[in-house]
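Late entry, evening session. Most of the bench is empty. Finally got around to the prediction I had been postponing all week. Sequence below, unchanged from the version circulated by S.P.
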Amino acid sequence: MGDKILNIEQEFKDSIIKKYPDKRGKVIGIVSGKGGVGKTSVSSLLSYAIAAQGPATLVIDMDTGLRNLDIVMGVDNQVVRNLFDVIERGEDFKNAAIRAKPDIDEQGKPIEDENLPWICLSDQLKIKNAIAKQNFQELLEDLRDVFDIIVLDAPAGIEYGCRLVTESADEAYIVCTPEMPSLRSVDQLSNIFDSRIPVSLIVNRMIPELIANGGGMTLEDIELFTVLPVALAIPFDPG
């Protein structure tokens, strides 16, 4: 399968300029135990931020049946083919790859010279286990030769789609909020990782004012409760 994908898409492969052509691409898994904690927003913003530094970046929505990365990144009207079409039907990957929208300058014109991430979406109409693990991991191995960074936006929970991400990533970040229901889910989620990859937390919707007044959990409290390091804390912004 791998040779077929690379041969079919050699033109697309040649069009992607890797920042580190001699290194295999790194796969980053973004997961969460509960839905609604901002995981897809983190995946989207992270892919933009990485691409802005120059690496060839791909973000894949792994939530078969309930994808929303296309909406978050504003490309829902550009979807032609998806991950299922590539893996199970032999479709060219270039037909499922969508370039993210550029930022707009002060004159309202798109900034054409910025490096943007690519997006690949799951199938909105399939069941959760529609993507075969072996086929997906073979595709991922091929894509490591095309992209510097591949971000996998996992479905919430600890079911098939999430486990597919945890078993395929080189490093992972668990997105949570500083509330007990979310932090309790972190404990269950962290148990499905093995020791081969580093796992850290991204804590979303921190409220500094609340912590300053003695309410809410501090980052130290969260690390003590979850026994995981906090890589990033994102403050709550009502705007």
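Two things to note before I forget:
The radius of gyration is 18 Å.
Residues 12 and 94 are 6 Å apart (CA to CA).
Will write this up properly tomorrow.
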